[in-house]
Amino acid sequence: MTTIQERRQEYRSLFKQNVERRLLVDKVVRIIVFSCVIIAIIPLGSILVEVFKNGLTAISLEFLTETPGSAGSGEGGIGPAIQGTLIIIGLSSLIGVPIGVMSGIFLSEYGDNKLARSIRFFNDVFMEFPSIILGIFAFLMIVLVLGHFSVWAGAFALSLIMFPIVARTTEESLKMVPMTYREAGTALGLKKWVITFRIVISAAKSGMVTGILLSVSRIGGETAPLIMTILGSSQFFSSMDTPMDALPLRIWRLSLLPYDSAQLQGWGAALVLIMIILGINLGIRYYFMNKKNGFFGQLIKQRRKNTK
Amino acid sequence: MISDKVFKIGATVAGTYVLVVVVLIAFQLISESYPIWEKEGLSFITSTDWNAVEGRESFGALPYIIGTLTTSAIAMAIGVPLSIGIAMFISDAPAKIGGPLGFLVELLAAVPSVIYGLWGLFVFRIYFRDWIETPLHNAFGDNIWLFSGNPYGLDIITASVILAIMIIPTVSAVSREIMKAVPQQQKEAAYMLGATKWEMFKLAVFPYSKTGLIGASILGLGRAVGETMAVTMLIGNATGIGAIPSSLFGPSQTMSSIIANEFVEASPASVHMPALIGIGLILLLIAIVINVIAHLLVTKMLKIKEGAINN
């Protein structure tokens, strides 16, 4: 027979063991979870270091402005690719942004019905379509019909990637503008389109700009749809109906060449591309950090208060 | 109020654009891939031959379907646990640490696919081959089929690991949002019962966010299935029966990479191009199914109001 004292002692030690085990498990999980974050950041660090280290040695004024030299010579540059990327971004935005903005207006201002709900759903699913399929689509719709590779086809394919992103971010930013703003406009006897463009959009501008820039940084790096639309070229842009170069395409072609000099040029092109894309991403971030107490930040706060 | 009507019609038309495009894509892919279905029938999906030489044409998509599913599955097996770990850390960390770390992880999504490919080809592949593939092959290569094959670096496992890195930002960002949607009261209740942090996650967060986390993972799967450039540059690009994976260190090919590799060379007059478009159609169907499921799960999860645990 054990005495009460002894049993108490036993329970105490069991309890202590149990707590120690639980604390140990907790600690192990904390370490695992933290190392997950580290493991994910290592590739990012390695990519940035390699791109900057190798890219900087490749970059010169000649490299940035000239047409590519013959394969493996290490001469020439990526001028046409930079030019092409800027052209294709501009053209895609010309097609994609108006459609995206209008679609966002529809979802936000007229979006309380079955049609809008299904559009929102399809918009979300469409955003995740494999981009190479949009390339095939643009090929079938434009390249095959016209009979030659064309800049329009590339711009069309990229605009398809762009507009759903713009539509969703526009919708989200328009929804943040308080209802009272619209009511004030109505009370002044303004027409709905005037209210939308003059009051609502100007209040939601910074959110929309963010969405547009995000979509630009997304399409700037797209490669797959360009393979079957603008194809790639080593000459500067000449007409809309001929192949054109773009940075991602150039990186891809250079990486396939078995020469060290081509590899180095690939890193140089990657540095230019990553500067454009990370520049946009970090720029947005910086802009918003400074804007937290600006008009847009206030709007968000206000809306949170209203919905509470 | 004519102008308002015009405005409304304009907005509606722009909104409907996405529906028109989706229908047009489906229509185009089906009609342009028709010749291959006519020629091969269902054996297009089940056969493994791939020969574009004129007169001996034969096209089977099975190896590429298997390649896509294998690489995506391995990428999920590596990427999803990592992403959930990241989401746990960031959703629970103070904003001062969680914010910047979350931003860094999201920057991974901003890096273009072709740069992942370049980095994978010239940096990652070398280390991975020398430090992981070769030792594994030397130790187990003779006994376990998974590790047989010649470790060269341009193979299924390299492509899958890169894919895993690429899906981490998507999966972890969505998972984080979902974990943040768990009501604070539930977490506090778990702490009040004396739970440690891990036990709090086990008791309060995971049961509540299970559906959403599955949705987030499937969203990552959707990304992995459609990813093209990095995979094309790293998977070794075998064709036909050779593309059926025989070991982790064997070359393969995915649906999107075969399209990227051969589309421009394929002549629209022969059945080669319809075959590639047919693969595009299969890829689109898989992607749509995956994404619809993922979106339904995620939006359902984020809509659940505070309080009830939905099992």
UniProtKB/TrEMBL annotation, chain A:
GO terms for molecular function: phosphate transmembrane transporter activity. The keyword 4Fe-4S does not apply. Residues 82-288 form the ABC transmembrane type-1 domain. GO terms for biological process: phosphate ion transmembrane transport. The keyword Manganese does not apply. It comes from the Archaea. It is found in: Cell membrane. This is Phosphate transport system permease protein PstA. Keywords: Cell membrane, Membrane, Phosphate transport, Transmembrane, Transmembrane helix, Transport. Belongs to the binding-protein-dependent transport system permease family. CysTW subfamily. It is a multi-pass membrane protein.
Automatic annotation (TrEMBL), chain B:
GO terms for molecular function: phosphate transmembrane transporter activity. It is found in: Cell membrane. Residues 65-294 form the ABC transmembrane type-1 domain. GO terms for biological process: phosphate ion transport. PROSITE patterns: ABC_TM1. It comes from the Archaea. One of its GO terms (cellular component) is plasma membrane. InterPro entries: MetI-like, MetI-like_sf, Phosphate_PstC, Phosphate_Transport_Permease. The chain crosses the membrane at residues 7-30, 64-91, 103-128, 156-179, 200-221, 275-298. The keyword Transport applies. Keywords: Cell membrane, Membrane, Phosphate transport, Transmembrane, Transmembrane helix, Transport. It is a multi-pass membrane protein. Pfam families: BPD_transp_1. Part of the binding-protein-dependent transport system for phosphate; probably responsible for the translocation of the substrate across the membrane. NCBIfam families: phosphate_pstC. Belongs to the binding-protein-dependent transport system permease family. CysTW subfamily. This is Phosphate transport system permease protein. It comes from Candidatus Nitrosarchaeum limnium SFB1.
